[in-house]
Amino acid sequence: MCRHRLARTVLLIAVCLCLNALSPLRLFAETGYEAWLRYAPLDDSTRQKYASLPASVTILGDSPVLHSAQEELIRGVRGMLGRTLGAAKGEPKESAFVLGTVGNVPGLRSRSDIGADGFWLTSGRINGFDCIIVAGNNERGVLYGVFALLSKIAHGENLASLDEVQQPYAPIRWVNQWDNLDGRIERGYAGRSIFFDNGSVRTDLSRVRDYARLLASIGLNGCTINNVNADPKVLADDFLPQLARVADALRPWGIQMAISVQFSSPKTMGGLDTFDPLDPRVIDWWRKKAEQIYQQIPDFGGFVVKADSEGQLGPSAYGRTPADAANVIARALKQHGGVVFYRAFVYNHHLDWRDPKNDRAKAAYENFHPLDGKFDDNVIIQIKHGPIDFQVREPVSPLFSGLEKTNQAIELQVTQEYTGQQRHLCFLAPMWEEVLDFDLRIANHSTPVKEVISGRTFRRPIGGFVAVVNVGMDKNWLGHPLAMANLYAYGRLAWDPNLSAPTIVDEWTRLTFGSDPLVVKTISDMQLNSWHVYESYTGPLGAGTLTDILESHYGPGVEASERNGWGQWHRADHDGIGMDRTVATGTGFVAQYPSVVAKMYESLASTPEELLLFFHHVPYTHVLRSSKTVIQHIYDSHYEGAEHAQQFVEQWKSLRGHIDDVRYAATLARLEYQAGHAIVWRDAICNWFLRTSGIADTKGRVGHYPDRVEAEAMQLHGYEPVEVSPPETASQGKAVQCPPSAQKCTAIFQFKGPAGWYVLDVQYFDQNNGESKFQVRVGDQLVDEWTANDHLPATKIGGDSSTRRRIPGLALRPGDQIRIDGVPDQAERAPLDYVEIRSEDRR
Amino acid sequence: MCRHRLARTVLLIAVCLCLNALSPLRLFAETGYEAWLRYAPLDDSTRQKYASLPASVTILGDSPVLHSAQEELIRGVRGMLGRTLGAAKGEPKESAFVLGTVGNVPGLRSRSDIGADGFWLTSGRINGFDCIIVAGNNERGVLYGVFALLSKIAHGENLASLDEVQQPYAPIRWVNQWDNLDGRIERGYAGRSIFFDNGSVRTDLSRVRDYARLLASIGLNGCTINNVNADPKVLADDFLPQLARVADALRPWGIQMAISVQFSSPKTMGGLDTFDPLDPRVIDWWRKKAEQIYQQIPDFGGFVVKADSEGQLGPSAYGRTPADAANVIARALKQHGGVVFYRAFVYNHHLDWRDPKNDRAKAAYENFHPLDGKFDDNVIIQIKHGPIDFQVREPVSPLFSGLEKTNQAIELQVTQEYTGQQRHLCFLAPMWEEVLDFDLRIANHSTPVKEVISGRTFRRPIGGFVAVVNVGMDKNWLGHPLAMANLYAYGRLAWDPNLSAPTIVDEWTRLTFGSDPLVVKTISDMQLNSWHVYESYTGPLGAGTLTDILESHYGPGVEASERNGWGQWHRADHDGIGMDRTVATGTGFVAQYPSVVAKMYESLASTPEELLLFFHHVPYTHVLRSSKTVIQHIYDSHYEGAEHAQQFVEQWKSLRGHIDDVRYAATLARLEYQAGHAIVWRDAICNWFLRTSGIADTKGRVGHYPDRVEAEAMQLHGYEPVEVSPPETASQGKAVQCPPSAQKCTAIFQFKGPAGWYVLDVQYFDQNNGESKFQVRVGDQLVDEWTANDHLPATKIGGDSSTRRRIPGLALRPGDQIRIDGVPDQAERAPLDYVEIRSEDRR
Known about the structure:
Largest interface: A-B, 51 and 51 residues
Structural class of chain A: alpha/beta
Strand content of chain A: 15-25%
Oligomer: homodimer
Helix content of chain A: 25-40%
Distance between the termini of chain A: 43 Å
């Protein structure tokens, strides 16, 4: 960002702000770091629209947030229009952009219809000068107004008769980062923490400042910076000054800082022998800790608490309730204005899977609904959008309808824990839109989720939105260049959940890649299809993501959900699949919903098919509305999804030359990987169900791969066959790899097809505990070589590590000898699965 | 280039060749390193044209050059068409590309019309298979044929009925590099030597190999690798093995290596007490040295000799002639097939400037014409294209018409020594085209220069082209991303001087930047105008480049040419300007030309105006055909040229998004610099002539700069005024700089114009002996800051170091205080010349 940071740091703060504003004029490679705030130069005709804009920007007041607003307007106008606005303070002395809170703008009529964080963009004469006015309900509103104004300019909108009020839908618009103090991020897929390293807050917090700016630009106002599985050290006396440095970095952008805390902290690090929430010493401990924090961080946001969940200790240790737990902390924060986010993700992960009545989905409602009304007014129950855990498809959590006298916030996930971990394209706004618009029919009235969680339905004082984001040190924040659309969409929906996913992705694409119609159409189309595509090859009909739920949450792992206490059961067996959650014959979960919704889910006939297996157990031969059986739907949807993933590659290739080369190449690499891994998914899931059900694919695809040559069937020198577990994660259940003693191994086979042009896919395994090297030869001619140095979440052969190298445009003749040499490295033994050879004519 | 170089080096050579062929498939940032050999993927419709191409390429023979040809075809087809051709040897066993010398291709009719290095592209059936045949007269011809074939594919040409013979116009198609053994390059503007470092040949010669490939791709066949001002060490016994390594790197691409040698070597490093060319010991020394070289480098090309020139010792020391000198070396090389390039750049640089008959332009002809017929058949007289030294405009050297029984080669310059040093855009093909097409009218027959130097006119056995190139370690070879067009054009003209500059630049642009019509049109237009533009602000009417000829050869320095022995006189004084070279009243140089040409130049009326001042001295009031006086033409042409340089920036900006960002930004930076430096040139030249002639610019521009605020007229804190020498290289002859004691200096002035949007240009000096820092504020607001860290050829304030920082889009109001802070560094004392403020409306 800053080319002369060293020189800059010696200057005053006011100067620093101006300097940041200078940077967009210079040329940078498109790394993705700027995200949707590129402020790329507009074309001349669009610039012409803005020729008569004021030449200066004045702020009415003097605070870090107002300075950020002024700096941002200068920066944005400079980038897009090539003009450096003069920076002024106080009432305008010439035609100007005027930034201030409503009451401070001279001559502006007061209006009561602008709520907290809202703003009014208007124009008018002040002191005789024509001005464009950004009036905020508060200073944060001014900042949001500036971003809105810049977005209008980026989209080329007319500012002539500006008169627009915007305000956020809900007061709580937060993000959570699951960052550990050692710098690792739980379920983070874009590098190490921007906050922490090696047990401390980072010295250089420039990325934290830039993250805060990104968050502010989409109207977000709070950030919890550490993992919900919290390190108790975060509350240590000597750590608080470090936290204060982070809060200082977030503050100029209107972002409140919060931290996750261990509920057991009074005991684990506080020196007490108890953490019983009703114990006076514990009450006092929390009170004193809060006071200590607020002395150093006056605008501290509060605490996030994960208790009695997945090994975290909680109030149950003393027979107390979550309300007891939340309130003891909330009361300590109350006088300082802080809040407690108490997570509803409380469930028993030692459930007896043999009991057909047991159901993890019921846990949140059972734990929290009885406590409705028992929570203090500065407690917010943070509820995951579905009853399980961020699966690719779930119904909404019934707990949203179970808390009428309690503040709520919905917890969404920008980090794609179960949806491809930013290696697969999965734009989640369409899912979130469905969740937020879902009508719970509480008391048989229209009660969409968004109205409930925002506090509107039951007139709760606070409520709103939380998303787990987990940006990292990767230059482009989230790893996949297209993944930032999820962060953008989250912020936009938290600001206005009535926005549609197509509108949001159109905005994001224009700001991120420019307004070339082909670019906008192609990327929007890919993004809007991507969730359904990912769903169709990973977990159709509401079965949940059929992944390895025990470790990676990434590749295929159908059986990982079953026969354990974690409760993500899909109950697939020889005859059928699905969790019967009906009242009549199942776990009774359906009864947690208001009656209209419950009635819909109770009946197989009225349950939407995309959630069929979430609510009902059916035989594989059950016939869907499409007239397909469930088993054939599973096969078909996996083939269609994998095919669609391949189409993403072709769609992206049509953009070559229409966007910058750097992001083009980075995105293409991810999409090509996804297309290959979608086939790994397809084959693993289909083969598992074929083996389990014994019912063949009517189209004859599953189990038949005429274009493949299995590695274990090749002529092997050094390589040894190995059984893969689970077997469906390698073709025919087998692979080959070098034994520990081998320096180099070779697999050879003869091509038997007719002469022609072929695409050769080498399916191999890329673990993260070694960097094997591969070479492919046709006859004596080396045609490709590569190093298996991706960082996939896998230390062994299987669905997480399976990947492919595509070698296109190969001329092959009958009898050609194809030879693969593998050089193993450390624990990665140059493992190979198969080679697939397809004629180019068939693409 | 190679992502896995380390792994690669352990493989066999044949494999290495194939590996290089793999790389274009991978994505690289566009650094310019690939130059015109990018082999960018063709669009799908163009690819379709080539769907039925053969799938393999076979070579008939086994040599490094044939392997290069095969590798290149694989690489090019893979890059453009995404297909990896099978590599084979011997007669085709399937439909194939067949590469071989004419006699080796089975069934191919023999034809006598293909000369050395020529090739025949055709198609036909061999052994029953349809083949595309690249048949060379020799192996080099095969290589050139492959490049021609790939160029056809890159341009989307149909290969269906291929039948085309091409052959080079002349046998000598060489480049010279003026590289010193310490790694510096004399008149090199793109970094350090790719051949040498620290007194030795580089360990890593990968760039030499890639340079050889570039040269081969345009049909060049020889390279002299060291400075003509040669280090005697280059002939030392222990250096020869190092030279052999370079020859090894060049050989696979058909490039013969030669070296420049000191003529005095027998004495300076050979242990003799003489270098008299007629001394038997000297004769023997050269013979033995040649034998020694050819033992290690069997295809060694020969020697380049600069003798009796600019301080280099020569045969005159012993009263011998250049023929004696050239022949003694030529005879030593003869039996091995080597040649001597003897440079005609022999002149007295201690000429008495007061003698109006003296004329450096006469030197080459006077020295060499009398020796015509005295040179051995393996001597080539290497003649600069003009009689002076690569000025922006010269007539052709009369020596071309003065050697009928002697081999010649024309010496051109790709490195832009006097034409902007790759910081200014100057495409030289239009100049070279004029030179090569110039009809000398020898014996009143049509005798264009190209026919003479190629040996055609006088049926000489050898002859042709040499260009000084001076590529360096800069990633893009020549520094300016558009400068490689000159190397490309040189190669193409050496191959076929009947090609036109527009044809060449169209080819180059398509290969280098792609075929977007806007890109092709814009870049072609800029390139084709650029020589004239550079001429018009640096040396109009044939006055020569009015630069500092004593040191940098870069910025303006009108008086540097005068009153010294170097003989680049333009004779400008109070009354008039121009060198009278007529027979009647001048130096008599004109008489060196054949009579028709001499007659044209003898008369003021028939001399082309672009060469007026080269041949005639005229008063400033002399009226040109345009009805302008000479002095007004000087003013007008400098203003028009500087304006046109500014237009290059705007033209380039129209390509944003049409080419890759990296080369876009790098080129834009150079063009913006050029636009600023063109104004430095304009003002220096115009003010010098105003001062000297006393005749005002009728348009009132020269000497009047109402938008400028001189630094010395600002309110200075720390800064001190300083006189600049020569005075015309700073505005009003003065600048300001920090005294040695100052840590920081400030210059302040008040803006007095009306409120509005302005462009502020800060004119400052960027020396190469320090990196000053500058900050500009309007009021308290920092609006720009930068470090003066360019590497201009200057250690002091003046026309070489003068440069500008443009700050666009500034809002200014009457009374605004503008403040510049300068922080000096080492010998560079943050020097400032002036600030110019112009309304944006006036752009």
